[in-house]
Specification:
Pfam families: Chorismate_bind. By secondary structure, this protein is an alpha+beta fold. The chain has helices spanning about 5-15, 95-110, 135-145, 200-215, 250-260, 270-280, 350-370, and strands at about 20-25, 30-35, 40-45, 50-55, 65, 70-75, 90-95, 115-130, 150-155, 160-165, 170-175, 175-185, 220-225, 230, 235-245, 265-270, 290-300, 315-325, 330-335, 335-345. It binds the ligand C=C(O[C@H]1C=CC=C(C(=O)O)[C@@H]1O)C(=O)O. The site of the ligand C=C(O[C@H]1C=CC=C(C(=O)O)[C@@H]1O)C(=O)O has 17 residues, from β8, β12 and β20.
């Protein structure tokens, strides 16, 4: 489908205030949209459903589904043209002091051995003169962050969310499984050949060890890669890839609940870190640091010509896949307000001012597309 038709359908759908999610998987040149035909708020019951899931950080709250059976899916592989923009000016509202105090409180709890690591976060509100156009912002995100999972999600009963996340929660194709441990941040200054401090190495190792330990009974032939430096927009992170084959315990819900929230967005021990976050952040993360993506997607695989059986009938089969991402580098749009969500991992070696600056740098992933 042409890119023009693709976006015209989305705009028509959005004007009717019907739910949709447009997205592009990392390192692909395909953009898909799921256009839900009614405005019902479908909820996940047990993760056996098929559709696009949008789950909050606090998993006790409802995860939302756009079921494939209630939707139409479109796809385009054509390049998008982003119209020249006049820069948008905005006012920023954040509370640095509150966040610095939160970081210090987290370090104190770690020094008292109550926690090993905790990810603390905040929101930042940008106020613009005119309402922001989500479709234009989505196109700019797509053009800027090809290696990310880029999305624009809308439901009239929930709101509008956009993001470009570098982090996979899990990916499953038949019984092939992969995930990643992503943590540690520094600015990208033109090279991937950089040194990392002990603080970042430890912070990432905690995530990696947790994921390996958590999955060891569910995954056969587990392979854990070397830690490498990866680029995400103008930032660098440390990343380990963890792959293997799902054994007989293929229960998707159990698998998701084991992993989410990983110490890349919550902390360790998991329950204590979660309690620290809920008691001390003093705002609702909502869908930030939750997860989203394709759940139990069936794709029909057509045979190559020549692969025919005796009755000369071609074999085709269905392939099932799930691709879920952690909702980072994201924002919620509310008319003239863009609410940006951001956090960072705190360990005993954290320096409050540096951690604050890291959150400021992370918000630039989103701010850059608003002002571009
Ligand atoms: C929690 C966030 O990032 C996570 C992913 C990569 C690096 C992180 C860090 O260095 O703190 C975080 O664990 C965020 O961007 O809001």
């Amino acid at each position: 489908m042409t890119s023009k038709d693709f976006y015209d359908y989305i705009i028509e759908h959005y004007n009717k205030e019907l739910p949709f999610v447009a997205y592009s998987l990392p390192n692909t040149f395909e953009t898909k949209v799921i256009l839900q035909k009614d405005d019902v708020l479908y909820k996940i019951e047990d993760y056996t459903e098929t559709g696009f899931v949008f789950a909050p950080f606090d998993i006790r709250k409802d995860a939302i589904l756009m079921p494939y059976s209630k939707s139409r899916t479109l796809l385009t592989t054509e390049d998008i043209v982003v119209e020249e923009e006049t820069p948008i000016s905005f006012k920023v509202d954040n509370d640095k002091l509150h966040h610095i105090n939160l970081i210090k409180k987290a370090v104190t709890a770690i020094n008292k051995k109550e926690l090993q690591k905790v990810v603390v976060s905040r929101k930042e509100v940008l106020e613009t003169e005119l309402p922001l156009d989500p479709i234009k912002l989505f196109k700019t995100l797509l053009n800027s962050y090809n290696s990310a999972f880029v999305y624009c999600w809308y439901h009239p009963k929930v709101g509008m969310w956009l993001g470009a996340t570098p982090e996979t929660l899990l990916s499953i194709e038949r019984n092939k499984f992969s995930t990643m441990a992503l943590a540690g941040t520094q600015d990208y200054e033109g090279t991937l050949e950089v040194d990392w401090d002990y603080k970042e190495k430890e912070e990432q190792q905690i995530v990696s060890d947790y994921v390996v330990e958590t999955l060891k009974n569910s995954i056969n032939n587990m392979d854990v890669s070397e830690v490498r430096t990866v680029k995400a927009g103008k930032l660098l992170h440390l990343r380990t890839d963890i792959t293997g084959e799902l054994n007989h315990s293929k229960n998707m819900q159990k698998l998701i609940l084991k992993l989410h929230p990983t110490p890349a967005v919550c902390g360790l021990p998991k329950i204590d870190a979660m309690q620290f976050v809920l008691d001390n952040e003093h705002y609702n993360r909502e869908f930030y640091s939750g997860f989203l993506g394709e759940l139990n997607k069936e794709t029909k695989i057509e045979p190559r010509s020549g692969t025919r059986n005796i009755e000369n009938r071609a074999y085709s089969f269905n392939k099932r896949s799930t691709n879920l991402f952690v909702n980072l580098r994201c924002m919620q749009l509310k008319n003239t307000k863009a609410i940006l969500y951001v956090g960072g991992g705190i360990t005993k070696d954290s320096i409050a001012e540096n951690e604050w600056q890291e959150t400021v740098n992370k918000t630039n992933t989103i701010k850059n597309v608003i002002v571009s």
